[in-house]
Amino acid sequence: MTPTGSLLIATDLRKAYGPTTALDGAEFSIHPGEVVAVMGPSGSGKSTLLHCLAGIVPPDSGSIIYNGREMATMSDTERSALRRSEFGFVFQFGQLVPELTCVENVALPLRLNGTSRKEAEKTALGWMQRLEVDDLARKRPGEISGGQGQRVAVSRALVTSPRVLFADEPTGALDSLNGERVMELLTEAARSTNAAVVLVTHEARVAAYSDREIVVRDGKSRDMERVV
Amino acid sequence: MSSPVVRQWYRDLAMGVRFTFTGGREGWVRAVLTAVGVGLGVALLLLTTAIPSALDTRGARGEARMDVGTVSADEYPKPTDKSLVVADTDTEYQYREIRGRLLQPEGANAPLPPGLREFPAPGEMVVSPALAELLKSDEGKLLRDRLPYVTVGHIGEAGLIGSHELAYFAGAEGLAERIDGSVVARIEKFGPAVEDPEEPMEPVLVLLTLVVFVVLLMPVAVFIATAVRFGGERRDRRLAALRLVGSDSRMTRRIAAGEALAGAVLGLVFGTVFFLIGREIVGSVEVFDVSVFPSYLNPSPVLALLVALAVPAAAVAVTLFALRGVVIEPLGVVRTARPARRRLWWRLLLPLAGLALLYPMIGQGSENGDFNEYAVISGVVLLLFGITALLPWVVEAFVARLGSGAVSWQLAVRRLQLSSGSAARMVNGIAVAVAGAIALQMLFSGVSGRFTESTGLDTTRAQMELALPQGLSASGTGEKLKQAKGAKAVAAMSSATVAGTAKDPEDVAEIVIGDCAALREFAKIPSCRDGDVFLMGQPDDPATLKLSTPNHTVYFDPSYAGEEPGAEVAWKLPGEVTKVTERADTLRPFGEGLMATPGALPAKAKTDAYMYSTVFVRTDPSVPDALDEVRNAAVAIDPLIRTWEWATTRRVDQFTTIQTGLLVGAAAVFVLIGTSLLVSQLEQLRERKKLLSALVAFGTRRRTLGLSVLWQTAIPITLGLIIALTFGVALGAVLLKMTATPVAIDWPNVLAMTGIGAAVVLVVTALSMPPLIRLMRPEGLRTE
Amino acid sequence: MSIGHTLLGLLESGPRHGYDLKRAFDEKFGHDRPLHYGQVYSTMSRLLKNGLVEVDGIEAGGGPERKRYAITEAGITDVQRWLATPEKPEPYLQSTLYTKVVLALLTDRNAADILDSQRSEHLRMMRILTDRKRKGDLADQLICDHALFHLEADLRWLELTTARLGKLAEAVAK
Lengths: 228, 784, 174
Prior knowledge:
The complex is a heterotrimer. Chain A is α/β, with parallel strands linked by helices. Chain A has helices spanning about 45-55, 75-85, 100-110, 115-130, 145-160, 175-190, 205; strands at about 10-15, 20-30, 35-40, 60-65, 70, 85-90, 165-170, 195-200, 210-215, 220-225. Helix content of chain A is about 35%, strand content about 25%. The mean pLDDT of chain A is about 85. In chain B, helix 10 (about 375-400) crosses helix 12 (about 420-450), helix 12 (about 420-450) runs antiparallel to helix 17 and helix 12 packs antiparallel against helix 20.
């Protein structure tokens, strides 16, 4: 781990949900422009690690420093604002608002930041073009395939040009071909904007799109560059 | 059961019923939710069906205890061993009515009033449980002074018309001498002298009752229809699984109907329990001065049976109807079949048909014609049902045109666009309730003129009026009352008639007797001394003109052939009879007639025995409970003094009862509708848990989501209320026309009803905020 | 699979005769293919020549099978290096990996580290292939995909083995 120059550093994270320990001293760091895969068996705590890193869930203890600022000292409102403007998210399920059209979905984070509808949708369309789903702009999520939906979700995650993109099993529901396409587009787009990508996956072929991987086991993380 | 089709239906429905009870926790929760909803509706239905019998029982009890007023004063002139003298001493305490009776049995076989086991001895009384409680409490302090009797027992249920009725029977002596037929009477049995033929209700009242029932029951029906759909989306997923294992589309629908049936039947059980509980509660409360005994509330068997059959049948029908637009695919997905654009024409047909049914009856109210009950009910039902048909179309058409705004707005509008149907369903109940309430409100305020009699009393001039029993001196009583705490000023007057001859007179005239101060309350009198006589007004009645000539001799209490001879007191009018004019704000409008000060009359004429005396009291606003203080003073003088508080209007009793029922019912309906709104709101939120968490994850402000939920409710509700307003006013206007009453919209009341509807929605939204905030917690993202 | 390293590893727990070595190898690793004696002796003589083992003693009676071998310091270092070096990711690697894991468990080395460094190596290979695939034509893509799928299978095996290390340790200790 090379904390100097890191954008996001977490040390000794602990988090329990009731009696279940999800994180037990996990460490993490990521540089701008880096794609880090978080791997591990299901239930190992990788999603919790992502939620903590993204400031969605506060850890029970440990520190998370984003861009030089300790997240624990931020209010919920500040963390929300951070998520809106600096972070992007792609999940496996349930992320597209079914009643909004695709372009409206993609434009949503911009609109939450106060961008006018017209401008937001223009930017959104640009990103959809990059992810090759611009032709679906006026359709609703219910009318498109899973792979297309995931690309729309990636466009939405990138539309604010986030500095960190959090992806939790982004290809979990997709077949190999679609999954790869989504990963290719996602990493390409992230690299082009120098965004860091935290990629939670249990699939090696998805993790192969990363620069580096860490493995989470029983709530402990293991940085694979330090092994041996 | 031999036909294969019937067997198939039976099998599928039974399977659905089984699913409800074996479907694990989720199945149970759904079933219980539905059952509670249906149960509330059923309980309300049962209560409603019990109201007629309750009113009948109440009426019968009231009739069985009738006493004073059933016989004339000379019906039983002599005491017998089975006669009883009863005095009506009804009074009012802190604006609550108290039924009071003094009893003096004259023989061993005197009839006992219902609810009494033996007569109270003089100085003792038997009281209703509610009165006993009031007397014991601090509130009853003043009342204890008014009823100076020892409580020796309680009146049984048979003697009361409500669980909270205030009543007492007190033993008395010396009543026989005071029998007058109106306050004190001798009777030999309780109950009406002759069986009254049932007095037919006035057609307008019938109309009102019908409309009240329909208007109250419609939202209940809508509510039941909503309740059987609780948890619908989760059920759809289960149905999809059924399709996967090979049940065909029609079987699946029937299985779903079976589930609804199970919920509805369970709801009937719940409803019965709720009803029994509700009955006890109803027995223990008093609403708007009306209380009933639980035992009164027995639903008529036919109506109860109808409820028991109609509710499950409706549950099945509603489910099948609701699934009409849903394609249940085997692969776990339930896709709402792209709904055909809602068509307007048949939706308009319903209210138009309703209008068409009501139209022929326009104007019949004035001719006292009968309203066809079936046409009224169908017409009103169709009109109100038209709302539930029109609302989805209006919501769809409206939201389709809505532009974009803030994110919260956009989220709400888009959601409404995608599922305008469920949004409309959510507000159907409240819209129908509001429309009905508005129509009724209009009808009530419109016709209330016909049922509210103006008393013509000017409450700024006096606040109380006391009628003295015959024989009690007006001036003496007036003096005593003037000393009473709470009395500021009194005016005592007596009235009598004078006749031209002592025997079998042809000419009679009215005369009012009082001191100068009292007379000045009725007429403008420039100068007055005791001994003066006046003629008020410009009489054109020849008798009055003749009898008011100065120095003319007239007679008090003349004798008539065939009757007991009168006192025949002769009175020669003084040499001067001053003409005066009546005050515009006179305490009692006589119009014309003689007025005399006591000094002008012969001593014998002042005995008051044949005069009707009244004392008017102006109360002291600075004294708390002034009215009750004066009443206490009056009772202390003579328990037979009757008191009234002056009011500007007086309503016909039946009318008051209907209006009371409406208020109570409307309150219950609004609570019911609010509950169903809340349940479906929470359900929708729970179903979107994951999405909400994802939205929060990428930084959506809670305020934005909260607002979007508010918009999501507010838009359809606003539309619903606008339609409700339109339909309510239209229906109200038609009903007013039917009763031939000029149509006037009582805006404050109309808006109040709309406001209550809106308030219900706001409260529901507010109540759904805490769960929404809980659902938005990031924990919702966890999938493992 | 390196028989030499395996035999060396077996010697770490103490000097053994040639036939002892064969028996121990067959028991732990030779389920489907027992070693020939000749293989054992030729391997041991190579190791002897390289100074990784030494003859600890010879039983009376002579004959090659009577030699007792012991591992030298150089031998221990060699085993250590071999275990720590991830195998070049290629198909049909399991038997080597399995041997390494068992040996590590036998010699009280950290087996999880071996597996983790191997998975890291696999991922590194997969990254290279993924990158090549991204830049290559369809033929490249298909060839790379073939390799990727096999590597992925290995990787899954690695993960599974990691998850079952505890049980394996118990089995080996018996």
